[in-house]
Give the backbone structure.
Amino acid sequence: MTCREFIAFIVEYLDGALPQDGQAHFESHLTRCPDCGEYLRQYRATITLCREAFRDAGAQAAPEMPEDLVRAVLNAIKRA
Amino acid sequence: MTDVDGSTAGTTMDEGTLLTRLRAGDERAYEALVRANGTRLLAVARRILGNEEDARDAVQDAFTAAYRNLDRFEGGSRLSTWLHRIVVNAALMKLRTRKRKPEQPLDPLLPGFADDGHHADQFSTWEEPIDVTLERAETRDLVRRQIDNLPDKYRIVLLLRDIEGLSTDEAAAALGTTANAVKIRLHRARQALRALLDPHFREKRP
């Protein structure tokens, strides 16, 4: 397996969707290629960063739904 | 997910009771539904649209659509999950009507390969463990800004899959595309985001 192929299979690997022999090839390349190892670590870190980045953004921007929007929604429903 | 909280009478109502009251046209039950879910749905719409006015419109559209389609809610999922899907669709609809901003090409952010298929570049390790990095509010802010720098086509798939928690098939249905296209875009989006974050996180060599 080349690095290009390794990178192309990352999503399937992380989803556990590679067939058994594909996973063996992937992991064998991983043990031999420090660059792909680092790339995969950073790729996983990126997913974690992404998931966590919005953890408190909504709460900081507006802790409650604005009252005028609640009223606007309820009025829109009455017209619906 | 937030529980549906019917707190108008100072008590919490279970979802079955709430649904019965909603279907009977009980306005107070609907208000309880809006109050219990509105903040979270507004945050979803803001993430997708990045604009307060559009986000508010999308939330209004979503609650109106939910009201019209209450009879079609089959109870296979929680009401809050159903509303989440509806607001995602309402926000995507809104996004489609907006004028697209000029987008940077993504290819320079993807890894390069030599003719033999091996990496053209070496990767510097990232400085500190990611859980430590994430404790800083400025890191989370940086990540949000870099996500916003991705072209919409990729940003949206990243949001739907990695942040809103939709499955590949659900994201494909919401975007009117195939599961395979979602997988390809998600992979490219994550790779591009990694490249945008790399200069901020790589180990500083003396």
Observations:
- The longest helix of chain A spans residues 34-53.
- Chain A touches chain B at residues 2-5, 7-8, 10-12, 33, 35-36, 38-39, 41-43, 45-58, 61-66, 69-70, 72-74, 76-77, 80 (CB under 8 Å).
- Chain A is about 80% helix and 0% strand.
